[in-house]
Design brief:
Number of helices: 9
Distance between the termini: 81 Å
Strand content: 15-25%
Number of domains: 3
Structural class: alpha+beta
């Protein structure tokens, strides 16, 4: 009753509050129900699963890369002509007041070093291409050799197992006699004329317990008995396992048999060694005290030495077998790793190994570098950016060209002043074309040409920018100085390009790659994508220019190859798997054979 009254005492004020504040109470109730529903959904939601959106490598694609910038129409049509490279001016072919045309050579800068660098690069490229052709021809041969190496390693491993089986057979033929000798040393009756006492006891009884070193001999006796018993148990267990062992046993069973046999043979050899230590200590004590040893003591000792040599020889063979097997297994692993590397990006025949792909990427980069060097070499000749009149020529032969203007040109063409960040500025060059639009004039689109690029940037609040001037190819009277202008500068054009969607290219440690399934998936999944238990492989690629949609592929892929162009997460549908049933245990197999005539005493 007290519990009910306590609960009722709490509920009455809560009920009064709910009645008095119905709106707030309703909101709280909805929030509680929503939280419970959210927690339930979270707890029971299936794990997310990655779906791969697939596509193919396209060919014959036209890719146009652009850089966008904005600025104002310049109030002046005067432009300083500045060199894009430094060096000594070797020739000037114009003077102030002279009318020039677009592209006309105005001056030259010494290009000796640049030409030499270009020649060396072209020579290195030629050598690398020859080496690439040689490696390309050698690659299928190396791949075949790698497969042969794997096959040979597998054959060697099987031969090693056969050799091991033969050695095991020899060991188990030797050991019955060895174990008989080991038993006889301790549990024979050779040292007792009445044939009542075992050797282990009869030998100790010839010594007076008060003799010095008797305790030491007793210690050797105890060790010999202990080691013999351990060897006897190990031998019996190993022999039982060996009698179930055949030449056709699987490799794992052979490894286990070898390991057990090594442990057992080691124990047998140790038992004989301990027995010899016991006999030796007894002989030393007898000689020290002028006590005669049993008549056949020397023959027992000699037999133990002979059988210890046999056990040690067998043990050495087994240890060599183990080392050989380990080496042959590692050779197989190494050969498989080599073939896996051969097959990166080309699993069909492995004739295009990763080293060859890297070489192809390097050659493509060298070609691009040479193209850039040739373009840079043209900068050593200073040309007029457009038609106009030179208002000043500020340089003379022998001067060092730098950031200062060589000349100033006045043109009737209108000019746009724009500012680019350092990333975009690195992509543009003099003479590149631009498409121009104007905020104040709807529908007007003109073309222009890059006429000047600042060689030194301006830093503002840690951001570097470069001023660029674009001359208009055509004039329009509606364009006024100061108007806002938008420019799309064309930095590169490639026709018939190998390309992939921009989303397909990833970057890791500065290297570009795409993902591919090997072999390709048969179910592409369309726009919803597909799932796969095996993740896609990373294939390195060399990329060229890109637009808003596609990226040019210079090397690493071929037209038509399947690639991953995107991923998405989806809720995985889970099903209950049927629990497998377990069968009954099989019956024990019997075996014949005995202990090879050995008699175990004790």
């Amino acid at each position: 009753m007290s519990i009910k009254m306590t609960a009722l005492s709490y509920w009455i004020p809560v009920k009064k509050y709910i009645v008095a504040h119905k709106a707030i109470s309703g909101v709280i109730a909805v929030a509680l129900l929503g939280g419970i529903w959210w927690a339930y959904n979270t707890a029971t939601a299936a794990p997310a699963q990655t779906r791969y959106i697939l596509g193919t490598v396209a060919s014959s694609t036209t890719i146009i890369s652009t850089v966008s910038a904005s600025g104002q129409v310049a109030a002046s049509n005067s432009i300083d002509i500045k060199p894009q490279v430094s060096g000594q001016i070797t020739w000037i072919g114009v003077k102030a007041g002279q009318t020039v045309y677009q592209g006309q050579a105005l001056a030259s800068i010494d290009s000796t070093d640049a030409r030499q660098t270009l020649q060396e690069a072209e020579s290195n490229l030629a050598t690398d291409k020859l080496n690439f052709q040689k490696s390309q021809a050698q690659a299928p041969i190396d791949y075949q050799n790698d497969q042969t190496t794997l096959a040979n390693a597998q054959t060697d491993l099987q031969d090693s197992y056969n050799d091991m089986f033969n050695d095991l057979t020899g060991v188990y033929l030797d050991l019955p006699a060895v174990m008989t000798t080991s038993q006889t040393v301790l549990y024979g009756y050779d040292f007792d004329n009445k044939k009542v006492q075992w050797n282990v006891d009869a030998l100790m009884n010839i010594f007076n317990p008060t003799y010095e070193d008797t305790t030491s001999v007793k210690s050797f006796q105890t060790t010999a008995v202990s080691n013999y018993n351990a060897a006897k148990t190990a031998y019996q267990n190993a022999l039982s396992a060996y009698q179930l062992f055949t030449r056709t046993s699987d490799n794992a069973s052979m490894d286990a048999m070898l390991s057990q046999s090594i442990t057992m043979t080691t124990a047998v050899a140790q038992a004989l060694q301990s027995e010899l230590n016991y006999l030796g200590s007894a002989s030393d004590l007898a000689n020290k005290n002028n006590i005669s040893l049993p008549a056949n003591f020397s023959s027992i000792q000699s037999s133990a030495r002979t059988n210890l040599a046999t056990a040690n020889t067998d043990l050495s063979k087994l240890l060599v077998d183990k080392k050989t097997l380990t080496s042959n297994k590692q050779a197989i692993v190494n050969a498989q790793h080599t073939i896996s590397l051969d097959q990166v990006g080309n699993t069909s025949d492995g004739s295009n190994p990763i080293s060859l792909q890297v070489s192809a990427n390097n050659i493509a980069k060298e070609e691009q570098d040479i193209a850039n060097q040739k373009a840079d070499l043209a900068k050593y000749t200073i040309v007029a950016p457009f038609n106009g009149t030179l208002s000043a020529v500020d340089a003379k032969v022998g001067d060092t060209a730098g950031s200062s203007a060589v000349a100033t040109i006045i043109t009737h063409s209108q000019i746009a002043n724009l500012s680019l960040n350092e990333v975009d500025a690195a992509k543009i060059k003099l003479g590149q074309k631009a498409t121009l639009t104007f905020d104040a004039i709807d529908g007007l689109t003109l073309t222009g040409t890059i006429a000047e690029i600042d060689s030194v940037g301006t830093v503002s609040q840690g951001v570097v920018s470069y001023q660029v001037q674009i001359s208009f190819d055509t004039q329009d009277p509606r364009i006024k100085p100061g108007m806002t202008i938008n420019a799309s500068i064309q930095t590169g054009v490639v026709q018939d390009a190998l390309s992939v969607p921009s989303s397909a290219v990833k970057t890791l440690n500065g290297e570009s790659y795409v993902q591919m399934f090997t072999p390709p998936l048969t179910d592409t999944g369309g726009t919803t994508g597909v799932t796969s238990d095996t993740p896609p492989q990373m294939v390195p690629v060399t990329i060229g220019i890109s637009d808003d949609t596609n990226i040019q592929i210079l090397s690493g892929l071929e037209a038509g190859q399947q690639i991953v162009v995107g991923t998405r997460s989806s809720t995985k549908t889970t099903t209950s798997a049927a629990r497998p049933t377990t069968g009954g245990a099989g019956g024990n197999r019997g075996f014949g054979g005995g202990g090879g005539g050995i008699r175990i005493g004790g």
